[in-house]
Write a structure and sequence with these properties.
single chain, eight-stranded mixed sheet, about 35% strand, 2 domains, alpha+beta, 4 helices
Length: about 200
């Protein structure tokens, strides 16, 4: 009788451990970022497109950065502010891979603009370091953003979206290839931001 009881308890414990392993494995898979280190696997990502965006950008200007190998278009007349690591030293002591940033801003509206931050690290490493910082709300609570894996002009990346309140949200695109990553963070209209994103290209 005792042996039968012990056997039954052992079976229950084994089943419980098995169930916990399956649940943990599913949770791990939810948080993993698929590899995106080169152009060879961009077909795993959804191609970024905004078919309903008909904003005229024929008068937009092109910003070109030879040092970090990219170009992007921005509205005509906007201001450009650059901070290059080679000129001013490390920007963020908490992340020495944060090499530079370029900010485009509307001179007529100080709250409208977009920033391209450049990191000398792979997409996955940049995600691990910067995602927790990007998605903290004013109450310092962790937010779980909506995630979409994308491909933009031959670059793999991830789009994160999170709403802090009905009026406040964060829409961030993190792109990367090999050992360089770009975080594009905006505070501008969707139409302008979508067109700016579509114009982002590598030049190396």
């Amino acid at each position: 009788m005792i042996r039968k009881y012990i056997t039954t308890v052992a079976i229950i414990i084994i089943l419980f451990i098995g169930v916990m392993f399956v649940v943990q494995d599913k949770n791990d898979n939810k948080t993993k970022i698929p590899p995106a280190e080169s152009k060879n696997n961009v077909e795993e990502y959804k191609k970024l497109a905004f078919p309903n965006n008909t904003l005229d950008t024929s008068d937009w200007q092109t910003y070109r950065n030879e040092e970090f190998g990219f170009e992007v278009k921005y509205p005509n007349g906007w201001n450009i502010r650059e901070n290059m690591d080679s000129e001013l030293g490390t920007i963020d002591k908490n992340n020495p891979n944060y090499a530079a940033f370029v900010n485009f801003s509307n001179p007529n509206d100080p709250y409208e603009g977009v920033t391209v931050s450049i990191y000398t690290s792979s997409l996955n490493n940049t995600l691990k370091k910067e995602k927790p910082r990007l998605f903290k709300d004013p109450g310092n609570k962790d937010l779980i953003p909506e995630t979409l894996h994308i491909q933009l002009n031959g670059i793999s990346g991830v789009r994160f979206y999170s709403r802090f309140s009905p009026e406040i949200y964060r829409n961030v695109y993190i792109l990367g290839i090999n050992d360089i990553s770009y975080i594009i963070n905006n505070s501008m209209s969707y139409e302008k931001f979508e067109q700016l994103l579509l114009s982002f290209k590598l030049i190396k």
